Amino acid sequence: MPKKLRWLRSPTGADGKPWKNWRLSRNPSRKALDKELRPARAAFTKLQERFGAMAIDYVDGHTPQSDFEKTEEKLRSDMEKTTARIQKLKTRRDSLPTHLPLAEAKKGQEVVKFSTERRHLTTILKMVVFQIESDLVEMIRPHYKRVEDEGRTLMQSIMQDAADIEPAEGKLRITLAPLSSPHQSRVVESVYKALNQTNTMFPGT
Prior knowledge:
With 205 residues, the protein is mainly α. The protein has helices at residues 19-22, 28-59, 65-94, 102-105, 116-140, 147-160, 182-197, and strands at 24-26, 99-101, 163-168, 171-176. Among the domains are: 28-96; 143-199, no CATH class. The strands form two sheets. It has a two-stranded antiparallel ribbon. The longest helix has 32 residues, at 28-59. It is flat and about 70 Å long.
């Protein structure tokens, strides 16, 4: 059954046209493809790491040539398949518009138009979150060479990562799951060491 939401304001714009017909929203199909791309890219990174570790073992004389050649062929084949899948997903995603009219993007739902006050509050919260994200990106700059290109993406991945939250006496312990590469996990470790040194108190404690 379609989800029904009530309007908070008149569902028309200043020109009298339905608000949801001219308001744009992110294309959900592109968002779904982005979600498929993330694990595919993570899988490719892991294959690269395995290939590099195997090559080092071979150069150091720890892996016989026959085993190396057999494993190399398998890894190269897996990397080519993964690369082809990533390219296919990117091609499909890039062929889609980034935004759609709200009525089309939210098919089966009646869309809420927030009041002016709520929109202002939402905008302020977004600004605060963006500033916090920017501060965290600056914290990883000394530890992450690709911070200009990937800093915000990395921080967003950290925030969406699985974690355990454990209340302890006088503190709140948060344990994050490892990221897709050891280097990124070390970057996260450096950030949390810096955050621990601030001795920030949880609100209300």
